[in-house]
Amino acid sequence: MNDTPPPLPALHPERPSKLTALLRGLRCRCPRCGIGSYRDGYLTVTDHCHHCGEKLGHIRADDGPAYFTILVVGHIVVPGALTVEQHWAPPLVPFMAGALLVTCLLIWLLLPAIKGGMVGVMWALKLRGDEVHGDTPSQTGR
């Protein structure tokens, strides 16, 4: 049984801008319509949008969202930890436990949104995530 709804060209005749696709992805929405979700579960990219039918399952963001999430979380947690340490000098074990808890919570909250933003931009650029760079034997037929 194929439950893929047909695309709605009348509602969305052209691709939105890269910025619009990014913002829709950051809200964990379909980059095309902005209504359906880009994911099934926590991080799995859905095969297609359940609202507009846009195919999304071919987009592979791989490790990019993890790198960007750590970048963002690190820029939040490290200055916060340094500020707390300088102003209050808490005991080490509770301080580290709290910093670890905040870090894990931020990663858990931000990773799906950042992955959505990356999927949105990749969709807007018509990328799949399996592009090959350079001259490899598989490209040249050697």
Brief synopsis:
By secondary structure, the chain is mainly α. The protein contains four helices and two strands; from the N terminus they run H-E-E-H-H-H. It has a two-stranded antiparallel sheet with strand order 1-2.
Structural summary, described in words:
- The protein has 4 helices and 2 strands.
- It has 142 residues and is mostly helical.
- The chain has one domain (18-129).
- A two-stranded antiparallel sheet has the order 1-2.
- The protein is elongated.
Spell out the key features of this protein.
mainly alpha, 2 strands, two-stranded antiparallel sheet, 142 residues
Q: Give the terminus-to-terminus CA distance.
A: 42 Å
Major pleated sheet: 2 strands, antiparallel
Determine Rg (CA atoms, Å). Answer: 20 Å
What's the count of strands? 2
Give helix and strand order, one letter per element, not per position: HEEHHH
How many domain regions? 1
What is the quaternary state of this protein?
Answer: single chain
Mean pLDDT: 88
Q: Give the strand order of the largest sheet, numbering strands 1, 2, ... along the chain.
A: 1-2
Low-confidence stretches: none
- Helical residue percent band: 40-55%
**In terms of structural class, how would the helical and strand content be classed?**
mainly alpha
Strand % is under 5%
Number of helices: 4
Morphology call = elongated
